[in-house]
Amino acid sequence: MGIINGKQFIERLNQLNNEIWYDGKKIEGKISEHPAFKGCMATKASLYDLQNHPDLKNEMTFQLSNQHEPIGMSYLQPKTKEDLKKRRRMIEHWARATHGLMGRSPDYMNTAIMSIASSASILDGKENCFPENILTLYEKAMAEDLSFTHTFITPQVNRSQTYIELTDKPISARVVEENEKGIIIQGARLLATQGGMTDEVLVISTPKFYKHDESFAFSIPSNTKGLKFICRESFVGGNSFFNHPLSSKYEEMDSIVVFDHVLVPWERVFFYNQFDVATEFMTRSSFHTFGYHQVITRQIIKLEFILGVAQLLVETIQVGEYPHIQEKLAEIIIGLENMKALIEKAEQDAEIDEWGYMCPSMIPLQVASILFPKIYPRFCEIIQLIGASGMISIPTEADFQSTNKEDLQWYLQAKNQSGENRVKIFRLAWDLTMSSFGTRQTQYERYFFGDPVRLSCSLNAGYTKDCFVEEVRKFLHLQ
Amino acid sequence: MGIINGKQFIERLNQLNNEIWYDGKKIEGKISEHPAFKGCMATKASLYDLQNHPDLKNEMTFQLSNQHEPIGMSYLQPKTKEDLKKRRRMIEHWARATHGLMGRSPDYMNTAIMSIASSASILDGKENCFPENILTLYEKAMAEDLSFTHTFITPQVNRSQTYIELTDKPISARVVEENEKGIIIQGARLLATQGGMTDEVLVISTPKFYKHDESFAFSIPSNTKGLKFICRESFVGGNSFFNHPLSSKYEEMDSIVVFDHVLVPWERVFFYNQFDVATEFMTRSSFHTFGYHQVITRQIIKLEFILGVAQLLVETIQVGEYPHIQEKLAEIIIGLENMKALIEKAEQDAEIDEWGYMCPSMIPLQVASILFPKIYPRFCEIIQLIGASGMISIPTEADFQSTNKEDLQWYLQAKNQSGENRVKIFRLAWDLTMSSFGTRQTQYERYFFGDPVRLSCSLNAGYTKDCFVEEVRKFLHLQ
Amino acid sequence: MGIINGKQFIERLNQLNNEIWYDGKKIEGKISEHPAFKGCMATKASLYDLQNHPDLKNEMTFQLSNQHEPIGMSYLQPKTKEDLKKRRRMIEHWARATHGLMGRSPDYMNTAIMSIASSASILDGKENCFPENILTLYEKAMAEDLSFTHTFITPQVNRSQTYIELTDKPISARVVEENEKGIIIQGARLLATQGGMTDEVLVISTPKFYKHDESFAFSIPSNTKGLKFICRESFVGGNSFFNHPLSSKYEEMDSIVVFDHVLVPWERVFFYNQFDVATEFMTRSSFHTFGYHQVITRQIIKLEFILGVAQLLVETIQVGEYPHIQEKLAEIIIGLENMKALIEKAEQDAEIDEWGYMCPSMIPLQVASILFPKIYPRFCEIIQLIGASGMISIPTEADFQSTNKEDLQWYLQAKNQSGENRVKIFRLAWDLTMSSFGTRQTQYERYFFGDPVRLSCSLNAGYTKDCFVEEVRKFLHLQ
Amino acid sequence: MGIINGKQFIERLNQLNNEIWYDGKKIEGKISEHPAFKGCMATKASLYDLQNHPDLKNEMTFQLSNQHEPIGMSYLQPKTKEDLKKRRRMIEHWARATHGLMGRSPDYMNTAIMSIASSASILDGKENCFPENILTLYEKAMAEDLSFTHTFITPQVNRSQTYIELTDKPISARVVEENEKGIIIQGARLLATQGGMTDEVLVISTPKFYKHDESFAFSIPSNTKGLKFICRESFVGGNSFFNHPLSSKYEEMDSIVVFDHVLVPWERVFFYNQFDVATEFMTRSSFHTFGYHQVITRQIIKLEFILGVAQLLVETIQVGEYPHIQEKLAEIIIGLENMKALIEKAEQDAEIDEWGYMCPSMIPLQVASILFPKIYPRFCEIIQLIGASGMISIPTEADFQSTNKEDLQWYLQAKNQSGENRVKIFRLAWDLTMSSFGTRQTQYERYFFGDPVRLSCSLNAGYTKDCFVEEVRKFLHLQ
Fold first, then answer.
1. Cα dihedral angle (D82, D88, D93, D96), rounded to 10 degrees?
2. Are A424 and D478 an interchain contact pair (Cβ–Cβ within 8 Å)?
3. Measured in whole angstroms, how far is the alpha carbon of residue D349 from the centre of its chain?
4. C-alpha of C99 from chain center
5. Residues belonging to chain D with any Cβ–Cβ distance to chain B shorter than 8 Å
6. Could you report the per-residue pLDDT of B308-353, keeping only the tens digit for each?
7. What is the distance in angstroms between the Cα of D440 and the nearest Cα belonging to chain C?
8. What confidence tens digit (pLDDT) does each residue in B73-92 have?
């Protein structure tokens, strides 16, 4: 056992036969062949192949002392700063292979599993808590190279601060029953990206208000009875790579997860009906820290891609001489370098946590998590501002195969590019920032870490300012 | 003769049989039935019907003294401030019927024809100039209620300030020959919105550099031999109004216009091979002033729609209590009120121009033309910020017709809205700001008036500041 | 009786002998000769002279039917739109004479007196209310051309939303006693601009929480026993107009007003101990509307001055060729034109109010009141960005009178200006935006209308959006 | 020989008797006692004392192998990353002692001397170049702990891009003669901060256009014959620390430096009349890199001070509960953490340069140099936004010593602060951001590194993007 390859991933998923609904129909047949999923499945498969590639295997896997099969590096519990850098290199490899556009590359959830396993002992000895089940899952995930999705967002009838859901019939998923086999979950959760395209679904529910029955955590196979994924409209623009270079490969799909009386067996429950535990687990564990480390690494690669696209556009239409264009490129460079400096500082300032693992410093990661949702939409805007009306002149692959080819090659030529290449480049810029796929990416990154106001308030609340205030007080001789 | 209705418009267009290429294929059959065009055609038809509606006919048409058929109000040459207000009311009616989302409602180009006719005497007595042809066209347009498109943008191999195209074979359309029948045009022009969906194509070409053969103006039927429209990818999301409430109705299509040795008969030529005339005609005529008046009126209606959508979102998810949400709504209100105040000032300060027509004041319109391209993208962003992750949870009409309907109604319910209504509202917000249709709207508005830096420089250059400087000099007793 | 001139104003104020404390000392002798006040007093005197100037008297005064002495136009109760324009012209004259830099030119408070008199009947028949005293004051103010200050801000131990002051000894001024002569006020109020430099002090107190004893309104002479003005540090930079062209003339001073057991005679009380009345009086009367009309008119003149200074700087150092400089000037032009369009719309949309006066439309004024506090600091920044390091190279008048004069003339010369003129221009730009006087102006304008978040929320709350929402609902066929 | 203390510094400067002109008068007597200079001189003296303090001597000095007197750490030529950190610690100590408000603490120019000495060999064997003189100066500077100023800005008759000064009589300082003793300089240079308050003046002149006679570099004593410093108006608000806590200590003064036929002896000349050398020396030497390292370190300490002041204000008026206030604090934290991450990355990525010294990585420093001029003015604005109207209510020390003390203590009290403390805190916030001293600080930081547009263009030009473009090209299979 140990790492899988792309073929194994595809086969395993096809066999699961998860209940996925798309555009009013239940998906029958292989998910890897469904138009809305096949691009993403193929891309994920290529990532699994990547970790088997002889040139990279060394950086994509590690050896557990008690085993001789290689394990995915994303499962590595770091004990040194060098381990952190190893983890970063692995994340970069996968991110680079998808230009940072696949938010749910395998390392994202693998990191989550690794981190909750590392902090599992928080649950030791507490009522309704089963830390051993987390460790078992971690072992199994490593051994079988499992894939996961999760869902963080609860349905909200309204988003008013004071709203509390009080219906008898659950809206947000909650524990409605427990019996000798396990707990029964009823209700829904929103926005499981790649929902149905993974082996398992991890759910960690930490309600806003003091509600025991909404406080639970577990992981179950995606094909568990009663579990249903209802997809949104697909943003795959079509099969043509020429026309939709990004959505044809990276559209990940989001789905609503419905729990219709789903039984979670006891051996799969991490904790339940414990509001305080749920809150503590989220705030004290290393879940966020390692998670942020993965996400921000991926986002940096995405910025490199953005910068590459922006620069290629500038070269194509020869606008590099304009100071305002240079300033816009500099803006992207500044964002990129800021993010790089922050992740490196997080690693430099890493410290051994209470469980013995090398944990990155959280403050620089928090700063990056506030920065990125602001700069990413702005950089997409910059690409639109550079491309200007060219972002709209986008004929298709078929046009270049028709009798109009010669006209298009001639009339759309750029200084150093044929008309066809120019259209390819602009279609890429369009798919990145203006297609339904591109705007979903923007919205996804904008809200990835949560509400921006809350993020800022939380950074401020956790930041030690006493020393600086004290300096001022001393200077003014305040008593 | 006089105003037409929707049916007449559709029939006339279908008969023209213009050469339109879409996705590598020449469109055969009725354009009004082609998936990429039918929504827009139907909407345009409804606008023509609107001017025949008994309740509105009075405000949508006027009577020429020598004729008893009503003429479209967009052709009215205003002689009083009241005429300007009449024009505005007509524009508002058509804009409101399409929420300001149809940039090329008939009044847009009708206004252009009216304005060049009003200033045609600029061309009197000049070489290669035929002002009488403009007047003839204006008469014909009124009599037959013709529809037009035009193209302003030239293909650019590069956008460097100093680049001059020097190929033998034309890229930008130019006059390559003249004979007893007329002038021959060869080359391309970009971005004819609704290209192929109108009776005629108006071309006014004013090159950046001193190039006589790129300086010309004319109007010809869309089905003129050698004239070809190559479309971009369609942004119609599909037939379902539920799924794509806007793109199914308002997607206007943009196309590249290729002139393959096109003969423009002498009686259709306004001027040619006259660089100075081309420049003067654009800067001195009332073309821009009346054009801006039409566009800005439409944009104001669009802002009202944006405000309606934003407020409906706020009510749906009950976030009106948050000060930052209230500030965002106030931001839209401020933009809307600014635009309204500016158009009213332009009308209040209107003056009779050198040809005897009541011409709005240009400065407030210029200010509005710089303001709108900045606020429109921001207001789209505001809608995304209000909608947050809800902008991604968008199941389809088919989902609400499947067995999942009950689940979706329940889990997606809003405080005062069923799940279905909530999804309708979010899909509208998404189609307005995040679908390929929506982002094309944003880019279109952003660049409608041209390069923003140039717009600002031009406002500054034309604005009289001497009096203010003089006040300062006097205050400081400078000699 | 009727309008006074500058000399009368100075003499009356000197005779009052108000209790003003400056830098730890009670001011003895004539206030018009005190270094911290003489510039402002002289400027105010020049404004009173202005209304007597034969060229302007017609526009600065009006005739009451029952009197033959001319009355200051700022006291005119407008009954027609033409009256509103007359009021605006008067405000513009005074503002232009001070470049909009004197926030408390006489028209500001005269307008306040006029507006509360116009709405006085709100108080009719209510307990503890004496509308007749307002009317008497209005008559007296017109007859004697009285000058006023007022104070809006209460001392706040803290600004937390939920803080309520509960000390026994008043901090905020409140009614501590009433007897046969009147009411006794004890406590303080903050930020009376020109406090002590006016004939009277108007106080309208509308507490945040339901506190009767902090709800009152009256006007008393500035030299009333127990009334004390404690000034802040003066921002007069010195006597030299060359060195401090603005602060030497326009520094208005702010003061804390202390009420030490001050008796307000019954005939001076408008209302007291009536929380609901205080709230209604502020929200329903035309106090804000006419006040905004005055302030925004002044602010527009100030923007013209800013534009003049910016343009003069640009010409002096010849940076007009840079697009980013042109964009900055355009930014100021846009701000100025927006404000102008808004005030004109407010006048165009004016309507007769419930008391028979022609009241400007509030929405455009509110929009302007949110806009100005944002653009004014930005425009000051623009001036700093244009001036760059030149804003720091500012030798003094004495330098130009020393043996270094020739060196400075030579080394500091500008293309079309002597070194001395260049320094004069930069010192003006500096005094406007960077001196203590200039930054106080910025802060004053930024907070003139109150907390910006509250202003936006209030605009949003009062703005009718139902029609726009309804359009959207109809479009989506929502039930 | 070696480091000096404060007393030695004061005495040496007083003896120099430099020719300084202030407000039209030549300064006679001790500069350390002149009102415009004494605060700054005393503060500088305290910095020299600091390096002698037993607790810090170890971190503020180092030992040269051939000498036993300690040398100021700012002269250390770093050979390892640890040396870089030592340098940073030294800079931090001095910056912290002045809250980062003294731009020209001794380390600033000492670093410049160290860096040009380190790269002196660039000049080896070139015409009119004397690298040995740089080394001699470096030795002398270390031995005597000399203080320096320099001037970068040339007088500019206009700032148009194409302007070339062509007068016979020099405006910008240039070489007008050379003889056996040295070169003769005539003309002026602008903005020598602390001009006249240092032992020497370093001049490195690198003209914009190809002008040999404006290309030179040297250092001469401040009291050299013909050298004259003409000061701007002083921004010292007064002697009272209570009233002007910052300007009374940190106002550094800027001056115009006039060279009236100044002889620079050959042994003081580094190079002259060599345009290419001047340009190469600036771009290739480590002057900018080490300089940026010093400046950015100081700016970080300044941000800590800003954060302390902001937080103290928030606590004083109890506004910490408002999300928009928390966001503003978070904005400062983000700026601070970004800057910290960048300087650490510059050190982490440091490499041995061509002369064998450990040179920080330039890119992160450049990014920081573009960031800081944007965030610093914004953070000053944030302080004004937090302080609101309280920034204007600023009575003086004398007021608190008058009979009004009790009133002021009572009426201006804050939740946890007496009225006096509250005023102290607000006066500090005011002096930092709104006094003439504070706004000069803002302008100084805004332009410290030069024109922001140029900085961005230069970052973009020097940034390697090929790899990112190549990734995109490969992805699109472009040939």
1. -150
2. yes
3. 24
4. 13
5. 323-324
6. 999 999 999 999 999 999 999 999 999 999 999 999 999 999 999 9
7. 7
8. 999 999 999 999 999 999 99
Look up residue A95 and give its two tokens: 């991110």
Please report, for the domain that includes residue A195, its CATH number. Answer: 2.40.110.10
pLDDT exceeds cutoff 90 at D168: no
Domain membership flag for residue B335: yes
Give the span between the Cα atoms of D385 and A347, in whole angstroms.
35
Contact present, A391 and A426 (Cβ < 8 Å):
yes
Q: Could you give the angle at which helices C287-317 and C106-118 cross, rounded to 10 degrees?
A: 160
Q: In this predicted structure, what is the pLDDT of residue D445?
A: 97
C chain contacts of residue D318, beta-carbon cutoff 8 Å: 158-160, 163
Q: How far is D478 from chain C (nearest CA, A)?
A: 35
Q: How far apart are CA B118 and CA B112, in angstroms?
A: 10
Residue at which a domain ends, from A144, A168, A195: A144
Residues facing residue A190 across a β-bridge: A153
Choose the mutation target among C319, C326, C392 for the interface with D, i.e. most D CBs under 10 Å.
C392
For residues B121 and B59, membership in a common domain is answered with: yes
Average pLDDT, chain A: 95
For residue A160, the chain B residues in CB contact (below 8 A) are 318-319, 321
Q: How far is C258 from chain A (nearest CA, A)?
A: 26
CB nearest to D465's CB, from A307, A344, A461: A307
B158 and B119 share one domain: no
B-chain residues near A156 (CB < 8 A): 317
Domain residues for the domain of B99 are: 6-144
CB spacing of D160 vs C393 below 8 angstroms: no
How many structural domains is chain C composed of?
3
Contact C439 D446 (CB under 8 A): no
Shared-domain flag, residues D162 and D13: no
Give which of A309, A286, A228, A308 is closest to A261, Cα–Cα: A228
pLDDT at A226: 98
Which residue has tokens 């609704």? B194
- pLDDT, one tens digit per residue, over A198-225 is 999 999 998 888 888 999 999 999 999 9
Whether residue C208 is predicted with pLDDT greater than 90 in this model: the reply is no
C-alpha distances out from residue B26 to B196, B260, C62, Å: 12, 16, 76
At C106-162, the pLDDT tens digits run 999 999 999 999 999 999 999 999 999 999 999 999 999 999 999 878 887 777 777
The two structure tokens encoding residue B457: 């420089």
Q: Quote the radius of gyration of chain A (alpha carbons, Å).
A: 24
Longest C-alpha distance within chain C, in Å? 85
Pairing between β-strand D227-231 and β-strand D20-22 as defined by DSSP bridges: parallel
Q: What pLDDT is stored for residue D151 in this prediction? A: 85
Q: Which of B163, B411, B440 sits opposite A392 (nearest CB)?
A: B440
Which of the residues B172, B194, B227, B232 would you substitute to probe the A interface, choosing the one with the greatest number of A C-beta atoms within 10 Å?
B232
Q: Taking CB atoms and an 8 Å cutoff, what residues of chain D touch C393? A: 190-191, 232, 254, 256
Q: Which residues of B touch D324 (CB under 8 A)?
A: 323-324
pTM for the full model?
0.97
Q: In what helix (H) or strand (E) does residue A221 lie, and over which residues does it extend?
A: strand A216-221
C340 and C265 within one domain: no
Q: Specify the DSSP element, H or E, that contains B202.
A: strand B200-205
Q: Is the pLDDT of residue C163 over 80?
A: no
Residues from chain B contacting residue C330 (CB–CB below 8 Å): 370, 456-457, 459-460, 463
Q: How many CA atoms lie within 13 A of C218 on its CB side?
A: 26
Does one domain contain both B261 and B325?
no
Distance from CA of D346 to the nearest CA of C (A): 29
Give the chain B residue whose CA is nearest to the CA of C452.
B327
Instruction: Indicate the residue of C327, C341, C478 with minimum beta-carbon distance to B341.
Output: C341
CATH of the domain at D418: 1.20.140.10
